[in-house]
Amino acid sequence: MEHHAEVLRGGVWHQRIPSWRDLIVTVLVLAIMILIGVGTRQMVAPLMVAQQPAISLSPKVLPLYALRTTMRMLVALAASLIFTFTYATPAAKSRRAEMVLLPLLDVLQSVPILGYLSFTVVFFVSLFPHSVLGMELAAIFAIFTSQAWNMAFSFYQALRTIPRDLDEASRSFRHSGWQRFWRLEVPFAMPGLIWNMMMSMSGGWFFVVASEAISVGNVQFTLPGIGSYVARAIQGRDLAAVGWAIVAMTLTIIVYDQLLFRPMVAWAEKFRFEQTAAQVVPRSWVLELFRRAKLPRLVGEPIMTGIQIAVRARLALPSVGRRLRRWSPSRGIVDVAWFGFILAAIGYGVRALVQYAGTELSWGDVAVAANNGALTLLRVAILIVLATAIWVPIGVGVGLRPKLAEKVQPVVQFLAAFPANLFFPVAVFLIVRFDLAPKIWLTPLMILGTQWYILFNVIAGASAFPTDFREAASSFRIRGWRWWRDVMLPGIFPYYVTGAITASGGAWNASIVSEAVSWGPTKLSASGLGAYIAQMTEAGDYPRIALGIVIMSVLVIAMNRLLWRPLYDFAERRTRLD
Amino acid sequence: MGKMDSQPNNAVINLHNVFMAFAKPSGELLPVLADIDVSLRKGEILGLLGRSGAGKSTLLRIAGGLIKPTSGDVTYQGAPLSGPAEGIAVVFQTFALFPWLTVLENVEVGLDALGLTRDETRRRALSAIDLIGLDGFQSAYPRELSGGMRQRVGFARANVTDPTVLLMDEPFSALDVLTAETLRTEFIDLWIEHKLPTKSVFLVTHNIEEAVFMCDRIMVLSSNPGRIAAEIPVSLPHPRNRLDATFHEMVEEVYSMLTSRSIASIGAHGQVHGGLMQPLPRVSVNQISGLIETLLAPPYAGHAGLANIAGSLILEVDDLFPIAEALHILEFAELKEGTLKLTAAGRMFAQSSTEERKRLFNEHLLRFVPLAAHICHVLNEREGHIAPRVRFEAELEDHLSRRDAEKTLRTVTDWGRYAELYGYDDKSRRFTTIRAPE
Asked: What's the pTM value of the predicted model, to 2 decimals?
């Protein structure tokens, strides 16, 4: 509101004396710029292949390591954003592109990222053999693959649901493709995009930690960062160092959230499409600071003007398929040709794969991998059931108490963002110490990081549960099991399904790092598909890594299609009131 | 309407022989507009009046180049129109403001395509805002504004480009009665004082009084598919007074014109397929009872003009006509020349108890709504007395648009449930018989 008032005063600044706000803003901006500079310089430092950078276990190096880890995240996020704009736009605007791009996105989303890390590391390192850049790019690529898909999906969905009147308004103003993109499409997609960016970032920490220290075959690839710090601590059986890493990560996530995401969410508030005022307006002290301080406006004004001019330029992008379509014979022929082309490409790919697999793999290998897959599937299923049994009642309990929920929700969201793999060494230490059975006790690690999605979605669902329903239920004295069955569970069901989908997908991915772990020289394996992929990666056995990945992807896709998608549709249908 | 060809030079936008059809999922074409000949002349406000679903908005979008007709010619200032053109501005029913832009920015968006300098853009936007009475609201976001203020932004945004033609798609129908009236009056004031750059206005509406109040000429659009059913010149001088006797006569005339169209359409549907494909209005039993009771009560005593009822109940044509039609279809009342007269059954209905009402409704539903009888018939013939909804859906969609078919089916489900003629299970999407109450 504040800034409105100031604009209304005629947009004149009454005083140009820098205030304390300007001081803070300046310090903030300078600090961030210096940090980015330091991080970048190290990223392109030359790499001695023979002598990898030594990872120190001193807590003093942790801030620098945290910075480098964060830099990777930021670069990957920027890359994901560019990917989102360039991939989702044709998918939403061209029917033929959509036929290919959308299923592809669906599959990419289901492929376990940690599985193919070994491929990408080798590929990128070979691109820049004399610099750390290759390794850096590999890590960034890993994070990118954990972030990009859902962002692209959300953008695609937004483009497909642009309200008809806004679309027509934009067309009647004869906006060019470029103007339309920045005036209508990006702003409309913004709230969903930012929410998905936050989810992506949460997931990203997990992968950045996992991707900093990788050994493929006999070669060990290490990048200075929190992940490699922890890996080194595991090698040295240094529990204290693990503790320091956890502290550093916690602080990093908090700073990141305060400096980047809070301001973004608060800023994105204006893009909300609903015309009514929000009940809870997200706030951010950083954004307030920047809005109130005078210096940023002084510097920002020309930049904003520049952006405005760029956005309003008529740059004509090819307007793919935006014209009104009418069926014509020629369109039919092109469709058939396009279909033929896709089929041929798929056929060729399948043939090449089968041929390759035929020379390297036997049916026995497939059976071994499939058996492992069944074991992991069983684990995921049991974990989801357990997590549901534990977190649904707790989530409902919290969600129905608004005061409590307000306090608990940020903590849970933080827990979801925290890379659970940092805690693995602690768990492994305990397992080794008390000599527990790894097949059972390693299992919970799979869901350590992603169970929180169930909890916070259930809390959100219970908080949003209409008060009049609750009052109706209590006035009819519906209690006990009937209350759960008839009132609460149907009410939170769609939220629960959303959370469970994320939790189960995350568990599959985590299996690769949690089913096979080590503590110094001690190695524990719980068997299962994750352990299989991890072992094959260590052995540098590419065909079997690929086999493992394919089987895992198939299982994830099958689970999504056969279980989660139908549940989701059911939830959507049942809870609508019209 | 061939006479318009005699003054082609005067036409700003000309629609000739326009036909529009949408493809059904089956690939079949469903006509929505047919034989449309309209020309918008220089210096006039042309109204297009019709029921919802008649294709009014589609027609407006065709005239604005937003939709391409299936066939026919559209010309703008003598040249074929192939897309949104400079000089045509649209005002939307839903305002269509960008929620992430301030009022000023929203107005400036209208100028994006012209490639003006920043200063020129700002200057023109401010003067448009000034003209439309939005001074002081430049930096507000649309969500902070009331509906009336939002539509003012819509007007300012349309006017900022100095358009030759203003296309208005039910611009006042999302506003409350008082606000709508204020905006209408202000618009007409600007129009007669020639303060607007616009040469011609094309106004789509379902509000008869609004059309009579604002327009120089009214075209009445019939439904299924939409055709120009009548053209009514309105020669009353501006500013017009709603309390004027001539104004009232004019309104009544339009009402009776619409009534005769609506009865004709009911009659036409009654002829084919034994009336099975008669589209039913989406009207609830409560609305039916409500209107019957209102008609019987004083001052109407069983007989009233639609214009009067619409006025006293503050109903728009789109709300009132469907209910009146339902009464007509069920023969609880007779709709004729803009008046509604209760039948003997209608009077009885109004004075009955709940149970008797149900019985009466049941009787009339079976007799006058062939679709309801058909559903009963199918249920009785079937083993287990169960019939899936899709069966009737498919039958209806052969003859009606998807929307009409869905509407009709929902209505017949409601009415049948009330009459206890049959039941419907939404989970399995099936019709079932229910035992007649003992």
From this structure: 0.76
